[in-house]
């Protein structure tokens, strides 16, 4: 089964895909991206992902009409061409190729549109059963984390710190001691009988999975608080879990040297993971 790429209107094997060294994505990380997964061969929550991509493009004044470009059909075609049962689709749109000057290039410069389609391998079942360890690290990102920018250095350094500590993820802690999110996931905790997660806004990515988990929690009549919690509150919470496109809802049982509650995935985390899997199985997304 082939790994597929799409570059500026043309499908090709991934190994053949190239862009110019003068692409502003390469020179400046002047671009945005999305990661979509499929279930049963269908792109999951595609409309929400494309809507967020539009938000990111607009925020950076990259002028591309995704509807007119036909991106939805391109994603579907990429999935079909790859033939994998479950795929991970990566879309990146940059401001295009132009001589390297910081200011925007000349009007009419075409954005670069790249998509790759690969086989999706979700985390092993054991991780969901036993839960994972995370570390904490300062949130060094810029002040517009709601834009899904390819400028991910702070996220990368945080994730590497986690990897070196044998941890699954790094929780990012801002200057006020508040946990914003994970380096590539949203984060939730259960405390005082409610489900807590950071509020939408410039401090976090408006995660699609986060939105679905909140919707499911409300359906289950769980009290929800979209408010920041400190690292200490996460460490002392009854339950903690991560959420993201490829991660789904992943229990956290250790933060740095602190065990979360009894060190086992908690009941609300299990309930929400189950609800998420049922939502996926319903297929009306
Ligand atoms: N990451 N927070 C950050 C900083 C992220 O990068 C991501 C996704 C999420 C979860 O968002 P969603 O539920 O929409 O996947 C939260 C993607 C998967 C990545 O960078 O690979």
Give the proportion of residues in helices. 25-40%
CATH homology group of the largest domain: D-amino Acid Aminotransferase, subunit A, domain 2
What is the H/E order?
EEHEEHHHEEHEHEEEEHEEHEEEH
Instruction: Tell me the strand percentage band.
Output: 25-35%
* SSE class: alpha+beta
The total of beta strands comes to 16
- Computed over alpha carbons, the radius of gyration is 19 Å
Q: Profile the largest sheet.
A: 10 strands, mixed
Describe the structure.
With 285 residues, this protein is of the alpha+beta class. The chain is built from nine helices and 16 strands. Strands 7, 8, 9, 10, 11, 12, 13, 14, 15 and 16 form a ten-stranded mixed β-sheet that branches. The chain has a six-stranded antiparallel β-sheet with strand order 2-1-6-5-3-4. Strand 15 and strand 16 form a beta hairpin. The longest helix has 16 residues. It starts with a strand and ends with a helix. Bound molecules: N-(5'-phosphopyridoxyl)-D-alanine (PDD). N-(5'-phosphopyridoxyl)-D-alanine binds next to helix 7.
């Amino acid at each position: 089964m082939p790994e597929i790429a799409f570059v500026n209107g043309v499908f090709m094997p991934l190994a053949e895909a190239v862009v110019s060294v003068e692409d502003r994505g390469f020179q400046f990380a002047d671009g945005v991206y999305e990661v979509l997964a499929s279930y049963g061969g269908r792109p999951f929550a595609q409309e929400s992902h494309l809507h967020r991509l539009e938000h990111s493009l607009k925020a950076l004044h990259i002028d591309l009409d995704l509807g007119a470009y036909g991106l939805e059909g391109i994603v579907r075609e990429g999935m079909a061409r790859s033939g994998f049962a479950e795929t991970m689709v990566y879309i990146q749109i940059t401001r295009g190729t132009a001589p390297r000057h910081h200011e925007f290039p000349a009007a009419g410069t075409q954005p670069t549109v790249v998509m790759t389609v690969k086989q999706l391998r979700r985390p092993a079942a054991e991780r969901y059963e036993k839960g994972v360890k995370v570390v904490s690290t300062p949130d060094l990102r810029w002040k517009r984390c709601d834009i899904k920018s390819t400028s991910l250095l702070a996220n990368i350094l945080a994730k590497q710190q986690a990897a070196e500590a044998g941890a699954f993820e790094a929780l990012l802690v801002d200057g006020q001691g508040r946990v914003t999110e994970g380096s590539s996931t949203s984060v939730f905790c259960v405390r005082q009988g409610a489900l807590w997660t950071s509020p939408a806004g410039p401090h976090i990515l408006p995660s699609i999975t986060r939105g679905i988990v909140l919707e499911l929690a409300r359906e289950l009549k769980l009290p929800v608080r979209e408010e920041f919690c400190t690292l200490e509150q996460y460490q002392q919470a009854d339950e903690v879990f991560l959420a993201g496109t490829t991660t789904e809802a992943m229990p956290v049982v250790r933060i740095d040297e602190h065990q979360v509650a009894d060190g086992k995935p908690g009941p609300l985390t299990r309930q929400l993971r189950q609800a998420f899997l049922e939502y996926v199985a319903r297929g009306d997304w």
